[in-house]
Amino acid sequence: MADFDIAFVILPGTSQLDFTGPFEFLSGLGTPPSITAPSKFPQAKTHVVAKTMLPVLSDLGLSIIPT
Prior knowledge:
The protein has one domain (4-64). 18% of the residues lie in helices and 24% in strands. It has one helix at 16-27, and strands spanning 4-9, 44-49, 56-57, 63-64.
């Protein structure tokens, strides 16, 4: 298990932008700020959670696949 887990719970009808904006930002926590500096969260892991592993449709019909 990662030292720092982030979970996004998605439901049918979720707005894609409300989900992917924060997902993009928080997914980068494990990325070092530069080549010479270590990441503050090297074990950060992002999860997409839903009731099942089937694709979840956003409010505009985009399929989001849980991890």
